[in-house]
Specification:
Layout: H1 4-14, H2 26-35, E1 43-47, E2 60-61, E3 71-72, E4 76-79, E5 90-98, E6 112-116, E7 128-131, E8 136-138, E9 141-144, E10 154-155, E11 166-168, H3 176-184, E12 189-193, E13 196-203, E14 207-208, E15 219-220, H4 223-230, E16 236-244, H5 248-261, E17 264-268, H6 279-285, E18 289-292, E19 297-298, E20 304-308, E21 311-316, H7 320-338, E22 349-353, E23 357-358, E24 364-374, E25 380-384, H8 394-398, E26 401-405, E27 411-412, E28 417-422
Parallel strand pairs: 5-6, 13-16, 13-17, 14-15, 17-21, 19-24, 22-25
Antiparallel strand pairs: 1-12, 2-11, 3-10, 4-6, 4-7, 5-9, 8-9, 18-20, 20-21, 22-28, 23-27, 24-25, 24-26, 26-28
Helix pairs in contact: 2-7, 5-6
Length: 425
């Protein structure tokens, strides 16, 4: 008699993404991950001083024009362009003095001028500011030799932003410049998505934490620190579940706990088909709905993407370079979407290969590269770092970018055109 758990395992084995099923392209795998990523829906209203790095959940419109009134861009004299008829020089009477923060209390007529400071409101009747260096002052008048250009050195009300205009779209990340813009437009508080909760779990009986005494057969856990760093954003809350040994019961217990506590769970290691790779069997017993199990990419073919109830799950390889690449190419866009962020397309640069490489076609390969020279068109001439090992970290640490080698190219030659995605430094 087949038990329910056995039926679940059979279901996973038979699906297109199963252990023996179809190997997906990188684009399709990333698209499947993105398709099942759902924003949390949680919202907060935060004062601007607490909103850096958070994600806007509703379109924000300007509460005030920027600037809110016509004002002077220079220290000088506010005048009417009608004062400069005929031929110069012209003498204008100084009738007022206006500083920033004051409201002009009288109109300025043709033939008159108001002493004005930077940022001060333009008085009625004026449309131009003459820089103090461009006129001669004689007690209560100024002499102007050159006719000024109408509107010169005046910031018009709303020339930056008009009241009611859209400032930010839903899904925008709030950085320093955007927060300053909101403040200038009279916005003191902003609606943002609640933080997306991401759980991290490292599987492997061989793992030690850095600083612990090294013993034979063990390695230090580097994946944890790559992911902790990459997920260190104000819109993400991280729960670090640490290391769990290659024990199916212990893994299942932790997976169940994490699925109850997190919006997203990321595990590293244990997603291949070795005797000590227990993650897929655990997922089957937990009735996970899996969309991706194998991806045609190098490094990182064994990648798992699916849902544990409402929790988005990513199972990344244990090899460090493979874990990093699969996180960037498969997981990151979906995590952004789960946090409410607007889609961010990869923006590769055109580069020229400075190396030869014979490779087995069939998988998209990501090669760490760096460069110090450009060709005559300004394109980087890239050199390959490392030997392509999925366990190597030094090449990634030294790289300025990742070159994408398409699955149908069996050989790369010097001078070939490559697509390179720059790495955040």
């Amino acid at each position: 008699m087949i038990q329910k758990s056995d039926m679940t395992i059979l279901k996973i084995a038979e699906c297109n993404a199963g252990k023996d099923g179809k190997v997906l392209t990188v684009d399709i795998a990333a698209g499947k991950a993105l398709a099942i990523a759902v924003a949390t829906g949680r919202r907060q209203i935060l004062p601007l001083g607490e909103a850096h790095g958070r994600v806007v959940c509703e379109q924000v419109n300007a509460a005030s024009s920027v600037p809110p009134f016509d004002n002077s861009a220079m220290d000088g004299f506010a005048v009417s362009s009608q004062s400069f008829r005929g031929t110069g020089p012209w003498q204008l009477t100084i009738t007022d003095r206006i500083v920033a923060g004051e409201n002009p209390n009288r109109d300025i007529a043709p033939g008159e001028a108001a002493r004005i400071m930077t940022g001060a409101p333009m008085p009625e009747g004026t449309d131009t500011v003459i820089m103090q260096e461009h006129c001669i002052r004689q007690e209560n008048s100024i002499i102007v030799s050159q006719k000024p250009v109408c509107g010169r050195h005046v910031r018009l009300a709303g020339e930056d932003v008009a009241k009611g205009n859209m400032l930010l779209k839903r899904g925008t990340h709030l950085n320093s410049a955007k927060l300053a813009l909101l403040a200038a437009a009279g916005i003191g508080r902003v609606d943002v998505f609640g933080k997306v909760c991401v759980g991290l779990m490292s599987t492997g009986s061989e793992l030690l934490e850095p600083g612990e005494q090294m013993v034979p057969g063990k390695i230090y856990n580097s994946n944890r620190y790559y992911l902790l760093s990459r997920l260190n954003h104000p819109w993400i809350e991280i729960i670090d579940y640490g290391i769990v040994s290659d024990d199916a019961d212990a893994i299942r217990k932790l997976v169940r706990k994490a699925a109850a506590e997190c919006d997203i769970l990321i595990s590293t290691g244990g997603v291949s088909v070795g005797e000590e790779d227990h993650m897929l069997d655990v997922l089957a017993k937990e009735n996970a709905e899996l969309e991706v199990l194998k991806v045609a990419m190098r490094p990182g073919k064994p990648v798992t993407v699916g849902k544990l109830g409402k929790t988005l799950y990513f199972g990344l390889p244990g090899n460090p370079y493979a874990a990093a690449v699969t996180f960037e190419k498969i997981a990151w866009q979906a995590i952004l979407a789960a946090g409410g962020s607007a889609a961010k397309a990869f923006e590769p640069i055109h580069a020229i290969s400075g190396f030869d490489l014979n490779r087995k076609p069939g998988r998209t390969e990501y090669v760490p590269v760096t460069w110090s020279e450009t060709d005559q068109y300004g394109r980087p001439i890239v050199r390959r770092l490392g030997r392509g090992s999925s366990a190597s970290l030094l090449p990634l640490a030294e790289a300025r970018g990742l070159a994408t080698l398409s699955p149908d190219h069996a050989a790369i030659s010097k001078g070939d055109l490559l697509q390179v995605e720059c790495i955040e430094q």
